[in-house]
């Protein structure tokens, strides 16, 4: 797939689909500000259109009761799709966070899982030059945990990517696993050199999953893999995974009551762009609030190192 083909597809969607056109136009007016969290610059975005996603109910009963919005049969008739590989479609996300924001579902209704799909993410990242492909686990921000999908945005939109590449330049080996160092929360970096096939990384990731969560229940689509978010992107010689293990889906002060904040962290937020659908949260959120999210929902650096030591 040529990046120009994707660009043409997005432009066609914006020309022909009024909902998308309106929402991408509105995104130009969106308010943002930066907060320094222990040396990491986090962007806060006030985006009221994301309320549906941030407030999404993802319990089994609610999911099973609604028509799946990623299935072709339930999509708006004016929404187009661009096929990628044997089984995925690129869609323009009608509720954007970024000026280019794709949703990438499987063409069949099948549960959200990253297992065995790492090579697909890597091939997409290599194909879709300049983009990051990201994945939210079924209990870590996926608003359709029953329908497998990735998302994509320009990689320059996620501050974590630039910060990681600066602090921890890509490795030179075939496949290398490292712990993040010097960030306010912990994650894994898996580098795969372009001289080797994407599937070479599969064994490393499988071993990592088994150590992060040995109790994962293979038969349950909500808990069949460790709680994780993944960001995948291409550099000059290496395709990188940032694998962010999670302890919790939402922090204890998630909500709309007094003292609560409506932030539901997923790949985008942990990638450095925190989405606040309510103006009062956008105005009030502090570095301490972000630290609480990292503390409650993510691993610390030493916990990440501890897992690697057990491999
Ligand atoms: Zn579906």
Descriptive keywords:
single chain; 311 residues; alpha+beta; HIT family, subunit A; nine-stranded antiparallel sheet; 11 helices; 12 strands; globular; binds zinc ion
Topology at a glance:
Blueprint: H1 3-16, H2 18-27, E1 31-37, E2 40-46, H3 51-54, H4 60-65, E3 82-84, E4 88-92, E5 102-105, H5 118-127, E6 131-136, E7 149-154, H6 159-167, E8 175-179, E9 188-193, H7 202-212, E10 228-234, E11 238-245, H8 267-270, E12 273-276, H9 279-284, H10 287-297, H11 301-309
Parallel strand pairs: 2-12
Antiparallel strand pairs: 1-2, 3-4, 4-5, 5-7, 6-7, 6-10, 8-9, 9-11, 10-11
Helix pairs in contact: 1-2
Bound molecules: zinc ion.
Question: Could you characterize what this model shows?
Answer:
The protein is of the alpha+beta class and 311 residues long. The protein has one domain (3-309): ATP adenylyltransferase (HIT family, subunit A), CATH 3.30.428.70. It has eleven helices and twelve strands. It has helices at residues 3-16, 18-27, 51-54, 60-65, 118-127, 159-167, 202-212, 267-270, 279-284, 287-297, 301-309; strands at 31-37, 40-46, 82-84, 88-92, 102-105, 131-136, 149-154, 175-179, 188-193, 228-234, 238-245, 273-276. The strands form two sheets. The protein has a nine-stranded antiparallel β-sheet. Strands 1-2-12 form a three-stranded mixed β-sheet, sandwiched between helices. α1 (3-16) packs across α2 (18-27). It is globular. The model has no long low-confidence stretch (mean pLDDT 94). Bound molecules: zinc ion. Zinc ion binds at residues 68, 70-71, 109, 147.
């Amino acid at each position: 797939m040529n990046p120009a083909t994707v660009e043409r597809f997005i432009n066609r969607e914006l020309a022909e689909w009024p909902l998308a056109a309106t929402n991408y136009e509105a995104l130009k007016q969106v308010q943002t500000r930066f907060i320094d969290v222990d040396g990491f610059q986090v962007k806060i975005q006030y985006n009221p259109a994301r309320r549906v996603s941030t407030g999404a109910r993802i319990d089994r009963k609610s999911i099973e009761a609604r028509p799946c919005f990623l299935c072709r049969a339930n999509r708006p008739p004016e929404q187009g799709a661009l096929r990628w590989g044997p089984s995925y479609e690129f869609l323009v996300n009608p509720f954007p966070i970024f000026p280019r924001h794709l949703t990438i579902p499987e063409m069949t209704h099948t549960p959200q899982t990253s297992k065995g799909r790492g090579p697909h993410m890597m091939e997409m990242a290599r194909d879709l030059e300049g983009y990051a492909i990201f994945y939210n686990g079924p209990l870590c921000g996926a608003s359709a945990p029953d329908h497998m999908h990735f998302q994509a945005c320009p990689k320059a939109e996620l501050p974590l990517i630039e910060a990681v590449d600066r602090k921890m330049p890509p490795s030179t080996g075939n496949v290398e696993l490292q712990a993040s160092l010097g960030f306010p929360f912990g994650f894994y970096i898996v580098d795969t050199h372009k001289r080797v096939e994407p599937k070479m990384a599969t064994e490393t990731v499988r071993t990592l999953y088994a150590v992060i969560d040995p109790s994962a229940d293979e038969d349950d689509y909500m808990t069949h893999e460790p709680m994780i978010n993944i960001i995948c992107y291409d550099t000059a010689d290496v395709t990188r995974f940032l694998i962010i293990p999670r302890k919790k889906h939402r922090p204890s002060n998630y909500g709309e009551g007094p003292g609560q904040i409506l932030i539901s962290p997923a790949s985008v937020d942990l990638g450095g762009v925190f989405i606040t659908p309510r103006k009062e949260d956008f105005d009030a959120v502090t570095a301490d609030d972000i630290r609480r999210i990292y503390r409650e929902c993510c691993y610390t650096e030493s916990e990440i190192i501890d897992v690697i030591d057990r491999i």
